[in-house]
Amino acid sequence: MAPAPVLCIVIPCYNEESVLPLTCSLFRNQLESMAEGGLVSRRSRILFVNDGSKDGTWRLIRDLAASDPVFEGICLSRNRGHQNALLAGLMAAKDICDISISIDCDGQDDIAAMADMVKAYLAGNDVVYGVRSDRETDSPFKRLSAQAFYRLLGAMGVECVYNHADYRLLSSRVLESLSEFKEVNLFLRGMIPLVGYSSTSVYYKRHERLAGESHYPLPKMIALAIDGITSLSIQPIRIITVLGLAIAALSFVGVLWAICVTLAGQSVPGWASTISIACLLSGTQLLSIGIIGEYIGKIYLEAKRRPRYIVSETTLEGSRQGGSEI
Ligand code: UDP
Ligand code: MG
């Protein structure tokens, strides 16, 4: 029988000193029960990524790592955002594990679902998506905006699993393949389906945040949606082209009509309609330029090839495979 896989739970944290002391023991208990059940190796780890927190989050992580070998931490040199922090954690995990599970640190995602994820991996899946089966704990507005978010992504041709955020299991070969994706504009839930391999979903109930506040208010959600669409799809530019063609065709018909009316000896009536059409056209043009500008901005950022994150501190040195057991 194959040995139980070494699991690394990857948890990005930004200003989470209020919630971390509550959830770290929940993560540990879950890992311990999976190791006891023989699902995962006793050399499994919990890896926190401090995303440039301004509070005592890194101090807490360092203390945890010093007091218990199951905890590890890496610290980014500044805040780089959830997606970059997650990638930093996954790339660090790649060297120490057979499978990774990424999860938020606030207890909203059902920690117990990890066991089903590992079982789905053992059944032959390289990617296991954690999918929210209901959003009872979210406000009606959050539910509505999330629905619009996933539908918009789908309509724009971005392949991503409905109601799945960043709670997922990845095998080491998926992590290896993911390391080949060099883009700076990250939207992991749209990138993972591009990696391929066999995948499945595990459903869970989303809970309330145990403490602290969400870092994703509406403007950040919109920015994430724009990033997701513009870094993975060129559908908006195609829509502009089709819109341009349709408007050009309509204008041609309008001009023909105006010529015919003039030749028939009648003047073309109404300046109000002219003004409204001019306003509509200039609005459409500005919007189109904005969308194209968004892509040019993305190309500019990609062209510079700046590092996506810089690790300033780590507890991982000297704790590679073969280290102490839970
Ligand atoms: N997070 C991060 N960097 C950031 C913002 C958030 O690492 O710049 C982490 C945060 O600590 C949490 C996860 O990303 O573990 C998801 O954030 P949050 O719970 O605020 O989002 P929500 O669940 O409200 O969408
Ligand atoms: Mg949360």
TrEMBL record:
Keyword annotations: Glycosyltransferase, Membrane, Transferase, Transmembrane, Transmembrane helix
Subcellular compartments: Membrane
Main subcellular location of this protein, as a coarse class: membrane
InterPro entries for the chain: Glyco_trans_2-like, Glycosyltransferase_2, Nucleotide-diphossugar_trans
Transmembrane segments annotated in the record for this chain: 239-265, 271-296
Listed GO MF terms: glycosyltransferase activity
Topology with respect to the bilayer: Multi-pass membrane protein
Pfam family, one: Glycos_transf_2
Keyword Transferase carried by entry: yes
Domain Glycosyltransferase 2-like: from-to ranges: 8-172
GO cellular component, as recorded: plasma membrane
Family membership noted in the UniProt record: Belongs to the glycosyltransferase 2 family.
Record-given protein name: Glycosyltransferase family 2 protein
Organism: Ellagibacter isourolithinifaciens
